[in-house]
Amino acid sequence: MHGTRIFLIHATPLSVAPITDAFARLWPEAHLANLLDDSLSRDLAAAGELTDGLKQRFLSLARYAEAADADAILFTCSAFGVAIDACKNAVSIPVLKPNEAMIDEALSLTSRIALVATFEPAIESMRAEFSAAARVAGTSLNISTHLVAGAFEALQNKDAAGHDREIAKAAQEIDGAELICFAQFSMTSAAAQVREIRGLPVLTTPDSAVIRLRELLEITRP
Questions:
Q1: Neighbours of 59 (CB within 10 A)
Q2: What is the fold, at CATH topology level, of the domain defined by 100-204?
Q3: For 173, which DSSP code?
Q4: Which helix H or strand E contains 165, and what residues bound it?
Q5: Which of 76, 109, 128, 168 could share a disulfide with 15, CB 3.0–4.6 Å?
Q6: In 178-210, which positions are buried (b, 16+ CB within 10 angstroms) versus exposed (e)?
Q7: Do domains 5-98+207-220 and 100-204 have the same CATH topology?
Q8: Where are the domains of the chain?
Q9: In this structure, are residues 20 and 211 in contact, taking their beta carbons and an 8 Å threshold?
Q10: pLDDT digits (tens, 9 = 90+) for 8-31
Q11: Where does 68-186 have alpha helices with state H?
Q12: CATH code for residues 5-98+207-220
């Protein structure tokens, strides 16, 4: 698997470091290429919905990656699930949504899940993905969602400690869940603190995504 070329497509620069770190630990042989359009997250927040124009921009990025000889594409932006599904059908290489692997793992562990997000549009997209995966798996789902106001802005302002602190504070208010899932790659730094405070397992997306992507390519390109 040496020399496998993975294109990472980001809607915020805050996703770059967490996924790069995950690849460095779990698949250092992979050759990474980053495509970043940070106007995507701003435009989604402004529009309040995933417009046809935004979907077309995702398709353009996926087709660019395919034309640049990518072996696979990993999207790191959790709020754009429908657009990523369209990309899967538009290109001939494996395309992975950021949350697929984590969601499958979560549903294999429990039905009582708390989903925590710092970017509001990610919540409904992720809730839909969880519900669809639960239907496919034939499992029940009891999911609560929690938006951590101000944490995303703190990270944008390079206040990682403040970002982690706000997420940990919000996690203390979660009731009735057996598992906490983080909705975004950019939240990974808060996982250890939340685990310690709550004593609950916390799943993050980057590690699960890298492992799943490697498995996919080992199947499709032995």
A1: 17
A2: Rossmann fold (3.40.50)
A3: T
A4: helix 160-171
A5: 76
A6: ebbbbbbbbbbbbbebbeeebeebbbbbbbbbb
A7: yes
A8: 5-98+207-220, 100-204
A9: no
A10: 999 999 999 999 999 999 999 999
A11: 81-90, 100-109, 121-137, 151-156, 160-171
A12: 3.40.50.1860
pLDDT single digits (tens) 100-155 = 999 999 999 999 999 999 999 889 889 999 999 999 999 999 999 999 999 999 99
pLDDT at 222 over 60: no
User: What would the two tokens of residue 109 be?
Assistant: 């562990």
pLDDT tens-digit series, residues 64-111: 999 999 999 999 987 888 899 999 999 999 999 989 999 999 999 999
Please tell me the distance from the alpha carbon of residue 115 to that of residue 97, in angstroms, as a whole number: 17
| Residue 124 tokens, joined | 């409904």
Per-residue pLDDT band for 219 (boundaries 50, 70, 90) equals confident
Q: For residue 57, what are the CA distances in angstroms to 43, 98, 191?
A: 11, 17, 32
